[in-house]
Amino acid sequence: MFAVFKTGGKQYRVAAEDKIQIAKIKGEPGEIVEFGEVLLVGGDNILPGSPTVEGASVAAEVIDHGRGPKIISFKKRRRKNSRRKRGHRQEFTLVRITEILTEGRKANKTAPPRPQREKKPAPAETGEAGEEAAAKKKTKRATTSKKSKKTARPAAKTRKKPPAAKKKPQPRSKK
To answer: Residue 124 pLDDT > 60, yes or no?
Structure first.
C-alpha cells in the first residue's frame, strides 16, 4: 500500500517504513506526527482524492532535524563595483513512515519496535571445530587481502618537473 501526501508545498509518494526528508516541521525526535492532506491512496484498489481522500492520513515518526548543504548566492554587476554574496542552508526533518491510515482511523502514539539484527554466535576456539574455524579465517583473510590489492586504486602519479637547466654565463662584450 502506498500514499501520496502533501506537506511543505511538495508532494511525496510513500509506503510504510520509508525514510524521507521533508521541510522542517514541529516535533521532537521519537514523536509521531500525522499528515492529513492525503491526495491518493494506492494498493489493491486506488482511492483518488478530490482534492483529498476523506478520512485518510499518513503517520510518521520524527527521526531527526537537520540542515542541508550550503547554497551560495553571488551577484555581481560588472564595472559598477557592486557585489553581493549570501549563503543559505535549508532546514529539514527526517521522518520514517510508520503507517498509512484510511477510514478515519487514528495513528498509534508510540512508534512500532524496530526489528533487531540477529547476532551470529562465535565459534568455539577449542578442539577440532576451533582449528577448522581458525583455518577458514586464515584462508579468508588471505583471499580478501589479495582482492584488496587487485581492487586498490593505484597511487596518483605526480608529474615531476624536469631539473632546471643551468644557464651558461654569456660572455660580456668588450667596449
So the answer is: no
